[in-house]
Amino acid sequence: SIRIKEQQLPGSDRLPISFEDWEARAKVKLPVQAFDYAETGAGSEATMQANRSAFAHWRILQRILVDVADRNLTVPLFDRVYRFPVGIAPIGRQAFYHSEGEVATARAAAATGVLYIHSMVASRSLEDVAATGAHRWMQLYLGHDLEVVASIIRRAEDAGYTGIVLTFDRPEIGWREKDMQNATQPVTSSEGVGNLVTDPVVRRKYSLPLTPDSVQWITVNPETTWEALSSVRKFTRLPLLVKGITYPADAVKAIEAGADGIIVSNHGGRHLDGAVAALDRLPFVVDAVKGAVPVLFDSGVRHGADICKALCLGADTVLIGRPFLYGLAVAGEKGVRHVLENMIADFDLTMGIAGHPNVQSLDRESLQFIGPCG
Ligand code: FNR
């Protein structure tokens, strides 16, 4: 099992351990526009805060005298066994945070052995990232141009991606006051769309450099309905996952429309203010899915115990978002690696101390619900 590596660096060069320290270091290092874009949530940020406080609604029940010396953290997911039940959430425009952008993140994922999900609005092309050798899935938004979607899916298949994620919790870009104050565009031609401008269909149909309007056209479409999911299902035989589900009936509909997996998420509270915490919805979605397909989870994971709780509530794998992005901002590939390794080491210890020798033994009986006021 993985152990915290003794950090070799002297005093001031030591990398942070806690999420709060990573965030504080990133804030010092980044331009205000970039930091705020990562840190902020929609509106009053109630959803973002709820995502965090939801983890306190559930407490772990410790079991004693179980042999936990040799812990097994592996999980099967589709046709592969992953070393850890942890992956990198899709996050766009990572060159805003480090010059190597997604390539540094994917290298760290490859070194750690975790799944990496590439955003449609990545700064670097999906082919650049494929060269890192990371286990990789491709995430897309459905905009107005499904020919672009089909083209990106074809590129991903050619470049050895093994899963496609469609994100549907963002029919419009949310009301983000700090971004408005800073005049930050949702995506810009320089940082946001390296993956788009390398696409042959984009190059044929749109004039370059892409304008913010054409990026919006390609990546946002509030008219999208369930029929679009059925159409995109026909574009690929790869496992297709729907990200952004918190409503059980939507999970059932997604599976009926051909989805092979569900990602319970509210996008880290970046779009819908006032929503229920993603974690509080996880057991309901898991019950509706009834084991038919894998269920992944993100939104608010910051500690090993958080991973443990999400797995107890039925998630097969947990995705890490903002923590790795701050690692990237502070120290590039090495920073992302530190964040992942520490998070996994913390999870491994938590699981063992709670009395679980493997991920499969984490179940709902291992948690107590203490309610929002507990
Ligand atoms: C995101 N997220 C996201 N999701 C997605 O499907 N495609 C994308 O391009 C992005 N871009 C993005 C940018 C930034 C700056 C953030 C913080 C998030 C959402 C991401 O995949 C994940 O759902 C959240 O990050 C989970 O919340 P926490 O744990 O980071 O708070």
TrEMBL record:
Domain of life of the organism encoding this protein: Bacteria
EC class (word): oxidoreductase
Matching entries from InterPro entries are given as: Aldolase_TIM (IPR013785), Alpha-hydoxy_acid_DH_FMN (IPR012133), FMN-dep_DH (IPR000262), FMN_HAD (IPR037396)
Q: Which cofactor does it need?
A: FMN
Where, by residue number, is the active site?
267
**Keywords, comma-separated and alphabetical:** Flavoprotein, FMN, Oxidoreductase
Does this entry carry the keyword Flavoprotein? yes
Q: Where does FMN bind?
A: 90-92, 119, 139, 167, 243, 265, 298-302, 321-322
Q: Which reaction does this chain catalyze?
A: (S)-lactate + O2 = pyruvate + H2O2; mandelate + O2 = phenylglyoxylate + H2O2; 2-hydroxyoctanoate + O2 = 2-oxooctanoate + H2O2; 2-hydroxyoctadecanoate + O2 = 2-oxooctadecanoate + H2O2
Residue ranges of the FMN hydroxy acid dehydrogenase domain? 11-372
The entry lists its GO molecular-function terms as:
(S)-2-hydroxy-acid oxidase activity; FMN binding
- What's its EC? 1.1.3.15
Task: Tell me the residue numbers annotated for binding glyoxylate.
Answer: 37, 141, 176, 267, 270
Q: Which family does it belong to?
A: Belongs to the FMN-dependent alpha-hydroxy acid dehydrogenase family.
What's the protein name? L-lactate oxidase
Which organism is the protein's source?
Paenibacillus contaminans
